[in-house]
Amino acid sequence: MDAPLLNLELPGIPHLRSGKVRELFDLGSALLLVATDRISAFDCVMPNGIPGKGRILTALSHFWFDHTASWLPNHRLARAGDPLPANLRPFAHLLEGRSMIVQKAEPLPIECVIRGYLAGSGWKEYVQTGMICGIRLPKGLREGEELETPIFTPATKATTGHDENISFEAAQSLVDPVIADSARDLSLRLYGTARAYARTRGLIIADTKFEFGLVEGKLTLIDEALTPDSSRFWPADQWEPGRPTPSFDKQYLRDYLEHCGWDKLPPAPQLPLEVIGQTANRYQEALNRLTGAGSSSN
């Protein structure tokens, strides 16, 4: 297995910024988005990477962009397998499978979170208040319970520290209400489409988050889509409300960090090889199940 790619420099290509996982470069009329193998949890980037993770995120984003391009605009300019521009070819060994050339967009200042099941921070908020982001839910729901209908629970996008769940009304105060309505409706449709497809592959998409931006005034899906970094994937045959469900995402890492004695403040601890390997396996399993990669079965 290749060593994880944690940091990236492309001499001669202007670097715009580093995210928790991605590096963003300026190509003039477009942007180069590169998914490294970094992984974050509890708003901290781990000192170890997950080998191959960036390629898995990129492959899944390409898959979902292809799957929904007929009705949902996305920011992708080059498809998987398209040749690199001449100025990027010297870096092909670094960029192969983990980069995407995309349109420049004005990102909305909210994350569009869709929850179809009661898990994660939504479950914690429900236990405390009976609500999620101001939405009152029925009493007596169990952890992992399927919601009667998926709900839109936006969050602020924090550059540092924790994202904060907010009500839809608060989102409308941050974004033009018409655009907020459209982002909500597109998010719910996208989740519904992906969720139905995933069930045919034996997976439950419990929740996910999308990012949208404006490209020439048009609402456009940006960043990544329906990856193990942005979604909670459960094997359908092992799901049962009221008890933890195994997952093909970063939950295994979160569970380890909850019990390793770390106070969730920087710096994050070094990860054992077993945790790195198990996390890598779960990400790969999500890709295999959803796309059939590495498998001859349908």
Précis, in short:
The chain has 298 residues and is of the alpha+beta class.
Q: Could you explain the architecture of this structure?
A:
This protein is of the alpha+beta class. It has 2 domains: 15-102, Phosphorylase Kinase, domain 1 (2-Layer Sandwich); 106-250, ATP-grasp fold, B domain (D-amino Acid Aminotransferase, Chain A, domain 1). It has helices spanning 53-68, 92-95, 120-129, 168-174, 177-200, 251-258, 273-291; strands spanning 15-18, 22-26, 31-35, 40-41, 44-45, 99-102, 106-107, 110-117, 131-132, 135-136, 146-152, 155-156, 203-215, 218-222, 231-235. The strands form 4 sheets. Strands 7, 8, 11, 12, 13, 14 and 15 form a 7-stranded antiparallel sheet that branches. A 4-stranded antiparallel sheet has the order 1-2-3-6. Strand 13 and strand 14 (218-222) form a beta hairpin. Helix 1 packs parallel to helix 7 and helix 4 (168-174) crosses helix 5. The longest helix is centred in the middle third of the chain and has 24 residues, at 177-200. The chain is globular, with a radius of gyration of 19 Å. The two termini are 26 Å apart. 38% of the residues are buried. The model has no long low-confidence stretch (mean pLDDT 94).
- Give the beta-strand count: 15
Structural class computed from helices and strand pairing: alpha+beta
- What CATH first level of the largest domain would be assigned? Alpha Beta
Query: Termini separation (Å)?
Result: 26 Å
* Morphology: globular
What share of residues are in beta strands?
15-25%
- Element string (H = helix, E = strand): EEEEEHHEEEHEEEEHHEEEHH
The share of residues in helices is: 25-40%
